[in-house]
Amino acid sequence: MSPRMKVAFLTASALAGFLQTRDAAAQQDQASASATSGLEEIVVTARRREERVQAVPIAITAFSQADLERQQIHDVHDLGNHVPSLNVSLPQSDANGLYAGQVRLRGLPGMEIYVADVPIGNADYQAGTGIQHGLSEGNFFDLDDIEVVKGPQGTLFGKNSVGGLISIRPKKPTNNYEGYAKVAFGNYADKEGEFALNIPVIRDTLLVRIAGQGQQRDGYTHNVFSGKDLDNKNYQAWRASITLRPSDDFENYFMTDGYWQDTNGGANIVKYLNPNFILSRLGPGFVPLDPGVTKGCVAVVTLQGPAFGPLPPNFPGGCGQFQIGLYQQDLNIPFQEQQRLGPRAVVGDAFQGIGKDYFYGFTDTITWEVADNLTIKNIAAARIYKQLATDNFTPFGVQILNIGVPGNNQIWSGNSAQYTEELQFQGRSLGGKLEWVVGGYLEYDHPIGDTLLGSANLLGTSAGAVSYYHFNNQSRSQALFVHGIYDLSDILEGLRITGGYRYTWDYAESQSRSATGVDAVIRDAAGNPTNCPAIFGADRNCYQSLSAHFSSPGWNVSLDEQLDPNTLLYVRAGNAYRPGGFNLAVPAAFATFGPEHVTDVEIGAKVDWELFGMHLRTNGDIFRTTYKAIQITQQVSTTDSNGINHTNTLNQNAASATIQGGELEGVVVPFDGLELEPHISYLNAGYDQYPTVFGNEAGANPAFLFSPKWAYGVTVTYHLPIDQSVGDVALSANYSWTGHQYDSTSIGEIFPIIPSFDLLNIKVDWTNVLGHSFDVGFFMTNALDKLYVQGVEPIYDQLGFTSVVYGQPRMFGFSLKYRFSEGDEEATTTAPYAPPPAVAVAPPIPKSYLVFFDFNRSDLTAQAAGIVDEAAKNAGAAKVTRLTVTGHTDTVGSDAYNMRLSRRRAESVAMRLQKNGVPASEIGIVAKGKRDLLIPTGDGVREPQNRRVQILYEDQPGS
Hints:
Blueprint: H1 3-8, H2 10-20, H3 30-34, E1 43-44, E2 51-52, E3 60-64, H4 65-70, H5 76-79, E4 86-89, E5 102-105, E6 111-115, E7 118-119, E8 143-150, E9 164-170, E10 178-186, E11 190-202, E12 206-217, E13 221-223, E14 229-230, E15 233-247, E16 250-263, E17 269-273, E18 278-282, E19 298-302, E20 321-325, H6 332-341, E21 345-346, E22 354-371, E23 374-392, E24 402-403, E25 414-429, E26 434-447, E27 452-455, E28 467-487, E29 495-516, E30 543-564, E31 567-578, E32 581-582, E33 592-593, E34 596-611, E35 614-639, E36 645-671, E37 674-689, E38 710-719, E39 728-738, E40 741-742, E41 753-754, E42 757-767, E43 774-781, E44 789-795, H7 796-799, E45 801-806, E46 811-821, E47 848-852, H8 862-873, E48 881-886, H9 895-915, E49 923-928, E50 934-936, E51 942-944, E52 948-953
Parallel strand pairs: 6-9, 13-21, 19-20, 48-49
Antiparallel strand pairs: 1-2, 3-8, 4-5, 6-7, 8-9, 10-11, 10-46, 11-12, 12-15, 13-14, 15-16, 16-22, 17-45, 18-20, 22-23, 23-24, 23-25, 25-26, 26-28, 27-28, 28-29, 29-30, 30-31, 31-34, 32-33, 34-35, 35-36, 36-37, 37-38, 38-39, 39-42, 40-41, 42-43, 43-46, 44-45, 47-52, 48-52, 50-51
């Protein structure tokens, strides 16, 4: 190891030494060992090009479709049990957005979700809601893979993201007629179906793929009032894609997808209740008095009493102080009944829960290879989001905090459209040493219909009445970005530097209108509602219009070195921002909040190695994040110009924090047939400052929210040693443990901590049953039937109660899957990729290998795959792998068709080489003339010499 490398990677080397713990003398044999280690390789596009995940200098966790099925990952909730530092804590009320759930990477909430390279989060920062539309199970089927990328993103593509991103890549159409159909049945009357069909309408030119998924399942929480089951499932999801290649250098990929669900909503179980809760204390003229002051009589006016109605400007009777309470009836009886029923039933009331979503979209991606070193890519998309969700967090007939309008299932509580446009220029320069991307991004979000959010939660008033809020939020985001990767191998072998810059301009606009179900509680002498002028103006409907501009730069820089094909060290730093937004129905001083900023530094290592004959993979990193101008959400009391006391939920830039931690995930193959995939994460997150105005004690910072200090898990898979003619039987078990996490920074909250919990999932897969294209399986989630809290509404000190959402109980069932294919490609199974034994093929010339293909096909035959594996194994110290493709591939077809086929054949070889450890940066594809002469083959038959790919290594020592 050179002195320069030691200086550049001092800390990273220490980490790598901890991860490797191997004899230095064994390093020479490691390259060849990786080719037969049996460790699965996933090719990702985190940097907008295809790379092995082990060669990307970013903390990234990737799952193939087989991984998702084996580990029972159906949505983002499940991902949280498998990805280090990904934490998902979602109340069922998340669909309506008012009490949005927490989906955080490394403790940061600013995360984007992509489907087919298009961000679908539609995070409504302007209303402070943080709605995420990529959380549903309707996206997790028929995929190439899912990538979870950590740290600030945005200099390469898409939307700005402070915490990281989740990229969902649907399977694209292929050249083979193939597909599958799958059904499953389980407890709670579970019924599931899934299918995919791939049709090559015109092989290599017009390809079509359609897929769908659906599920119906009874709920596991019973509403004793209505007789309905909550937490049920009833959804359908679909996807159709078309690939069109009219020429060898042009491709258009079009995809349309959709998701529909209609359920009874989720269950919110009241865990704590203060039936004598006092909302506020008002003195003469409605000037707030000190709670400890008592002047004359004290009258308690409750909001739930039958005599409650409009109050005069001054309370009668000469009393000096009035207490505004929430509850009149004795709630101890229904509360005690709720405790007796337990977590799987609710006392209920007439408020009908609804969970209805309708999402659909269109994506069109054009890729034009203008020249060998220049590609233009355009990604245009439109997505429609419609949501209708109602929830009652106080299910005792007390409509204090209801989300949605009771009995109204026609007006959407969310109804918006998102349009995105991204243009990229990708290329290579400086003799291929510099790979670069330059592009621009535009996103426009706007409502496409009326949206209505109804609530009886006293918003904007001190005494309260049923309120209905109409929203009209619009936003626009624009950005320019540039990103480059430069090969510094001339200075130090395997060294690369990466840098990127982005500038983002955001514009937000919000109009809101509030109407009360009864006359305003307080009026002035002219009869106008006094709770509106100081906030909205003298509009009876309390209309408010706000707008703001935000902008900020972002950057990313990293240095990495590929010490050998199996060891990557890197150091990386990045910066990004999250735009500001608005608070609704609050005094002007609190109407707008600004952006927050994140700077992250990360050091990591990715290593494949051997220990006592076992194959291992260890990917680890340590990081430090500086989080500034944090958008804190709290309920605070404010007083308007009329002396009216208001309790409002506000977002303000009021804190800063530092987050430090580490992540480690890996693969251990003790022997053939057994695979262990452990992971662990550590987060040390704390506020550096937190203002006392938001309720914390002077000189004491509250705990950082939704960031468990420790989380870990392991997936164990064992393939039974049985004859392959019977099929493959794999037993899998996944165990995960998540530490306790804080859900509130309020001193008065009675349930501020979500307790730690662990889960065990089990799966049995029998693939290729008796040699046929059938798979059967058994699955069980939460096998130990653990009762755990999934989300909390921590508002005990604001409204006198706290409700919780419990995770689902034990679920189990059986599945049956049928696969069909014309036989051109290897059958897809859940078993991990393992290169086949090398086929001894004598190369026709030294350091050269010839890979032949079947007529009109670009997939590798078994013999061809063996040749490529042998070539990778014997690569030695070669710096460049040259794949030579010569002209036409066959004697039929147009020039354009044959050139495309040649390219596909070269890509098949390149992909196989990458799976065997050859870096993508060391593979070059060279095309010769279009009409080279026929050459004789071994059996004397003259074949086109260009129905082949030649692998040729540079003349380097050890090649």
